[in-house]
Amino acid sequence: MQFCFFGLVRATFNDQPLQFRSNKVRALLAIIWLDPRRQWARDELASLLWEDYSSSKARTNLRVTFSQLQQSLHPLYQALPARAPLLVADRARIALQAEAWPELQVDVWRFDQAIAAYHTHNHEHGVICAACLEQLTSAVELYQGDLLTPFAIEASSGFDAWLERQREARHQQLLLAYDVLAEHALRMRDFHEVQRLSTAQLLHLPWHEQAHRRLMISFAELGHQSMLREQYLLCQRTLERELGIGPDAETQALYQRLVTTSTTLPLPNPTLKTLPELSKPLIGRTHELALLHSLIEQKQQRLVTLLGLGGIGKTSLALAYAHAAQAAFDAVWFVSFAGSAGESLASDHHRLSATIATTLGLSQQLHTPQAALLHYLGQRSVLLVLDNLEHLVHEALHVQAILDACPHVVVLVTSREPLNIQAEQRVQLHGLALANADQAFAASAQLFLAHGTNATSQTLADPASMEWIDRICRMLDGNPLAIELAARWVHYLGLDEIATAIEQDMDFLQTSVRDLPDRHRSMRAVFDGSWRLLSRHEQRVLSQASLFRGSWSLTAMRSICTVSRLTIRELIDKSWLTQHAGRAMIHRLIQRYAHEQLQRMPTTAATTAKRHSIYYLAMLRRHTPALSGSQPQASVRLLRDDLDNIRQAWLWAVDHGATHLVHASLAGLSQLYDLLGLYHEAIRVLQTSITQIQRQPTSLQQQRLLMRLTIALASHFNAAADYRTAAQVGQQALDLAQTLDVPQQIAACLLQIGIAQRNYGLFADAEQSLQRSIAIAQALPLKQVYAHALRSLGFLAYLQGNYPVALRYHEQALAFYRLLHDQRSINLAQNTLGLIALAQGDLQQAWDQLAVVLTRCQTLEDGWGEALTLNNLGAVVQAQGDPARAIDYYQKALSIRQRIGDRWGEGISLSNLAAAWHEQADYQTAYQSAMQAIQHTTAIHDLPTKAYALTTLSQILRVLGDQAGSIAARSEATTLRTQLGQDHLISQTID
């Protein structure tokens, strides 16, 4: 669905135009859409559109016009009946609810977002990044004319003034975008693009002298002297006609300078024919290319090294810069050192100088290569591109000698290793940009399409294909050569088959094309070449690093791999590893290659894997007490960063029968997953662990471990709102615990079974299970299980309306939680105490209780607890008679719950929103929320919340005149309330 406001107002849904009855409707649409986050007061809208009318007449007109606008949007509501309405309104306000319609596309929003992205992005070295160039280009393309042009409505000078402000704001941003894009094109010496952009800009602002000056420079650079003069005269006439003034001093001075010289920079030297031609366009390196221009031409850096593994695009970038910078030098020379590892052009000491001298055609009969080279370069302004210099980094001092003796020489090096001399400015190349929320059509995908389109006639840019292309590019970490090799297969295989082949076999990434050098015909050849440059010690350490997952601390690597900081630094400098925020990472392709090498060292592989598991599980155990303590957030943040490695360490211990490690780490792992809200990942890891341990020889220790794992699994099924499975798994654990006669685990099993039964609506069974758990836990004693069971039983009493009992159980549980310093559980207990106070009519106590809890949850970074508390605070303010404020709380809670996957809480928030919207008299929105709540609670079998949502739906349908639907919803709610034993709520259902 698209809404366009640049030029004529137009809107389409499923490619069909939406019809608007009048310009007043279009004006109302524009006002709301152009300020989408604002809640408009009805009086404000009425006075804006009908300022010459009486207040009552203006409000009446607004009500009619708003109704007509809703009718225009009816095709959207009809096609998506379960969706929240796009426009919401009450007696006082009207607002757009755009977040509920993510497919909504509005040209002005996209324009504003593109401009905002540019303004908020910090550009190093004053160089505009590729993402911002793309954003500004998009903004220029979106501007199809001034806002709402042509457009007019009667009796609306206020609207006219508002529209003029909106137009002027966008017009200024458009001119800014043109200025930035055109200045970038000028710096890149793309003079035809300068002309296109500046000419387009002058259509919007004919007297903009900066655009005229850019055109004059471009004509001069291209040798079009007559057009240069014509442009100056046009500028002069336009300024005189429009403003009554002449060109400013800067424009006049520029013109005088340009007409006296044929070009601002020397013409290319004829010897530049030695520079290899660019065989294909450079894709995705706009930022890096601009950075080279900045470093060399503005910051006067005379030695720049492009670093990165083979295939990352160092040579292509260097050639692109060399071609673009030809006019800035007397000569540009490209010297290739590919294959120099085995050559002997001269003595080893002079190989670098000899290769350069030979490429330049210098006689070396009377002088040493270095002397001949320095004599030739002398005072010349020369760019030397030294390609693939990694084989001769030990001769880096010869590069320094050139810089010292030849003051106008600039050296651009491509290498897999740095030269490590003081004059060197390093530019590290990484993979091409991958798709993200801000940049769907990323450089990596563009490169794949460029090569894939050459290999096949089929269309690859459809959404389904683009998803596969993005996945392939991610698997290859955006490596340009790897992407090119993969794209060449599209003629023979589907994109899904290519992805599978890459996943299974790195040797799939190869080609037999003749115009690629041997070292680039496969990724294995690339890695083999770089691998041979490593010392044996570096090879061993890199192989060991393949066992890490995600990112890891340098401290962990030093301990596990028994390696020095210096060696780690060398591997980072040589682009085998990357580093960010003090943590190391390894790209997936490199990891696979390095892991292959590790398999050839079985003793090292086994030792390193064991050390990895011991290290990370020990880290987890050290932080386990803090995870259940009063301030777990610091430990959670630290362990979250290492979660990939903790998971890897855990699974290794499971696979290798290290049951002592698994036993010792289970509590911490389960608690960490719970605090992070990663219930489904916890379920996958625990199920995998149980399956693996069941295959191991039966022993008492194995059975005890299976019992504990199964209890933890039941707990996470409960957290994931899969109550039926939680009860089944809990029963399996209970059977095992009873067989092994382990009372403390029996109590834990009964606790999880009771929670599942309560949430599944089996209140009587739940009470029995929880009472049994309490009896065992109290006798042993098991303080934490006892406290959890008390709280769970108390919440059951709350659901049944037995508030004195609920209060007693929660106060008892709270006392134990305080003894245990379990802040998270304290917050949960106090949340329910707040609800009990609310149910008993003590709104102030409820508010005071919950407000304190909210602050603590936010401090602890406990998203689950924060959402729970926000939701309950919403219930308090709704009971205070402020449904609008309650909606704000409910929506914040819902947003968090959807983000962290709290399915149980999501159903409650949706139900509360339905009730609040109903109280606000926004029955359409209330209906949508109620239907969503019912669908959601049905899916997870949350019967208490479903009954609540059905009760609200019945009330909404009655107001909307659907008496039959209201009766049916009320009947179903009453049946559920009776089944659950919620007799105290049946009266609400019947009301």
Automatic annotation (TrEMBL):
Key word Transmembrane helix present: no
Sorted UniProt keywords: TPR repeat
Key word Electron transport present: no
Pfam families documented for this protein: BTAD, NB-ARC, TPR_12
BP-aspect Gene Ontology terms: regulation of DNA-templated transcription
Highest taxon of the lineage: Bacteria
Domain Bacterial transcriptional activator residue range list: 106-259
UniProt GO MF annotations: ADP binding; DNA binding
Renumbered ranges of TPR repeats: 867-900
InterPro entries from the UniProt entry: BTAD, NB-ARC, P-loop_NTPase, Sig_transdc_resp-reg_C-effctor, TPR-like_helical_dom_sf, TPR_rpt, WH-like_DNA-bd_sf
PANTHER family (alphabetical): HTH-TYPE TRANSCRIPTIONAL REGULATOR RV0890C-RELATED, REGULATOR-RELATED
Identification of the protein by name: Transcriptional activator domain
